[in-house]
Amino acid sequence: MKLRATTEGRFTQGLLIGIALAFLGFFLLLPLVAVFSEALKAGIGGFIYAIQTPDAWAAIKLTLLIAAISVPLNVVFGLAASWAITKFSFPGKSLLITLIDLPFSVSPVVSGLIFVLLFGANGLFGAWLAEHDLKIIFAVPGIVLATVFITFPFVARELIPLMMEQGKDDEEAALSLGANGWQTFWHVTLPNIRWGLLYGVLLCNARAMGEFGAVSVVSGHIRGETNTMPLHVEILYNEYDFVGAFAVASLLAGLALVTLVAKSVLEWRFDLHSGAKH
Fold first, then answer.
1. Interior CA angle at 123 toward 115 and 121, to 5°?
2. Cα Rg for the chain, rounded, in angstroms?
3. Short-list 34, 122, 104, CA closest to 113
4. DSSP string, 136-193
5. What is the pLDDT of residues 145-164, one digit of tens each?
């Protein structure tokens, strides 16, 4: 006799599933359909024209540049932080774990304001930066700093629980056989965490390309120079260029869909890898 995992009747199960599907349809599928339908309202030609304008192309290139800089930096930080937290005991370890979660609890707008207070014209380092003709706020470096701050928890937060679960046995065995620290990392630790690392990189990249609040504060909204794709969408929408706004927004929506598919694939590969090990 097959035992049931729950005691709810079929009506209750169907009702709960229906509520979940209705919620997803209304808040996820319907907006996506609206974005792509509005983007193609003027046809394929209008869509291509909208994303090939100089300002749109500059926003796309800047978004890709910011992601290309911030994601590798966060990979380095995430690997270093997770390695230190899971493999060593040191004073301030709990504080480090708490600080990693800081961007999750601070509003992105507040995060951007922090950098303005530090590096703005009237900020803490503003006078020194002006003397040396260095510009951070309302320039690419400020956008990179804000993006790195917003996204740095993603890689570390994926790796820390994974590395804690795996423990230190494999690394200790490698060291006992004569491997040095780098050899242990490249040939033991990294293969064990590769799917979790890729998953963290995927989430970090998606957030880096879609970040709005912090970037909006530090960018200055300079068209063709400091506008990323989300900021360009806002400008076009405020100018009633709905086709252009939704065309660029559809690129971000497409990124979200690709991220969702890649996330599912990575979860499947990770579960398959974990099952094979056990």
1. 100
2. 23
3. 122
4. -TTSHHHHHHHHHHHHTHHHHHHHHHHHHHH-SHHHHHHHHTT--HHHHIIIIIHHHH
5. 999 999 989 999 989 988 88
120 contacts: CB under 8 Å, gap ≥ 6: 126, 137
Amino acid of residue 93: K
Of 196, 136, 207, the C-alpha closest to 166 is 196
Using the structure block, give the residue that is written with the tokens 């974005």: 35
Structure tokens at 232: 């360009």
pLDDT tens across 34-76, in order?
Answer: 888 988 888 888 889 889 999 999 999 999 999 999 999 999 9
Strand, coil or helix: 187: helix
Record the pTM.
0.84
Position 1 scores a pLDDT of 46
- On whether the CB atoms of residues 91 and 194 are closer than 8 A, the answer is no
108-137: buried (b, 16+ CB within 10 Å) or exposed (e) per residue? beebbbbbbebbbeebeebeebeeeeeebb
Tokens linked to 57 = 């192309």
Up-side HSE of residue 1: CA atoms within 13 Å toward CB?
3
pLDDT tens by residue, 245-257: 999 999 998 888 8
